[in-house]
């Protein structure tokens, strides 16, 4: 009997190694499919990708069928014979509920993700932003969280394209209430609040949970990458946790859905499937009146910075959110001044606040860093302006200075240009520091204005197609997140993402 059991366990271990190798091979095939410009090479890569996906699906179905036939207490140990099942020692759980799989800490770079469905690559839509396709199988709502949130997991899966026309089961029906995230006790705040009055520290019982993946049912990587970068900001969590409660717009309020997603994401247990689906539904409902781009079912490709502007603008208008406070938290504001040589009058104009600082990338030889971008944006310019006092037109020097430096500063690197054949993407590498001081570009240059890098949204592809990912600073280090796939990232990649991904949005937090 013991020999039979050991033999079965050895087979499971061997199958696990084969599955992991196959998943890495699928990822390589997908990257080859995404980067190839040759039609024949794409067809070969597509055939190889689908064949490997079919083999992997057969292995997973066989594994699930065997798991259902095992007693609950033996599932984890049969999956990995080197450890014992991690069954919570509490009487509150049903005795028949199977334990989650766990394993020894993996030395592999990829650490976690959810079960992606079988997929076929789809034809690309018109705007440059995304390249994903949906799956042929409907996902389980709870699978939007990576398959195992245990730090010991070594499951690996590729970035899976999705299939057009898929409805996600995680999205609740119209009028239904999203699943509420459970929190034990009041979320206590710590540390003195900054100028916005919102603490920049995580509450004592959140912020230490591991990063969770966000399932992408269609071509919403532009949304998922932005959501990951905002979820990593403690000020947004603290703001919505306190200011937006008891909203009457059940099921149709983007801010309510975002609040529930934040609470669920930072909860120690449970997935984020239903909360993420509720947010997508709320965005679709409000997009019909605010912006048609967000009312689509997920098969259009959009710009991640446009979505960031829409989402923050919607939260700013929500009931219970103070506009001045939110502007201090996210609003970037500049002052423009110039003096008339004739009457000596100084003219000052304040631009309305924006939710990101859009920096042009200068054309120059050699290395370009973010200081060059900031200097280009804030440089003095000679313009002909009519003086309101003396009624004369003459050339003046216009000065552009930072008036309001928000607590959270998203910086957009404008990667759009024009070539001989029309609009093109600027793939110029831009160096950016982990610590950034904006004092030299502000009205008050005597005081330091230091920020720390918290998240990055990066894009791979062209203006016609591509894929977005996010780099996020978490409690257990820096992670690279592609939808529901989570990988460890090194400090080198944090400063300069590898391969074809170009940093597009840098999210800094004021220190």
UniProtKB/TrEMBL annotation:
<feature type="compositionally biased region" description="Polar residues">
    <location>
        <begin position="141"/>
        <end position="151"/>
    </location>
</feature>
<dbReference type="GO" id="GO:0005829">
    <property type="term" value="C:cytosol"/>
</dbReference>
<dbReference type="GO" id="GO:0005634">
    <property type="term" value="C:nucleus"/>
</dbReference>
<comment type="similarity">
    <text>Belongs to the peptidase C19 family.</text>
</comment>
<keyword id="KW-0645">Protease</keyword>
<dbReference type="GO" id="GO:0006508">
    <property type="term" value="P:proteolysis"/>
</dbReference>
<dbReference type="InterPro" id="IPR001394">
    <property type="entry name" value="Peptidase_C19_UCH"/>
</dbReference>
<feature type="domain" description="USP">
    <location>
        <begin position="212"/>
        <end position="511"/>
    </location>
</feature>
<dbReference type="InterPro" id="IPR028889">
    <property type="entry name" value="USP"/>
</dbReference>
<dbReference type="InterPro" id="IPR018200">
    <property type="entry name" value="USP_CS"/>
</dbReference>
<dbReference type="InterPro" id="IPR038765">
    <property type="entry name" value="Papain-like_cys_pep_sf"/>
</dbReference>
<feature type="compositionally biased region" description="Polar residues">
    <location>
        <begin position="76"/>
        <end position="103"/>
    </location>
</feature>
<keyword id="KW-0788">Thiol protease</keyword>
<dbReference type="Pfam" id="PF00443">
    <property type="entry name" value="UCH"/>
</dbReference>
<dbReference type="GO" id="GO:0004843">
    <property type="term" value="F:cysteine-type deubiquitinase activity"/>
</dbReference>
<feature type="compositionally biased region" description="Polar residues">
    <location>
        <begin position="179"/>
        <end position="207"/>
    </location>
</feature>
<protein>
    <recommendedName>
        <fullName>ubiquitinyl hydrolase 1</fullName>
        <ecNumber>3.4.19.12</ecNumber>
    </recommendedName>
</protein>
<keyword id="KW-0833">Ubl conjugation pathway</keyword>
<keyword id="KW-0378">Hydrolase</keyword>
<dbReference type="GO" id="GO:0016579">
    <property type="term" value="P:protein deubiquitination"/>
</dbReference>
<feature type="compositionally biased region" description="Basic and acidic residues">
    <location>
        <begin position="111"/>
        <end position="121"/>
    </location>
</feature>
<feature type="region of interest" description="Disordered">
    <location>
        <begin position="58"/>
        <end position="207"/>
    </location>
</feature>
<dbReference type="InterPro" id="IPR050164">
    <property type="entry name" value="Peptidase_C19"/>
</dbReference>
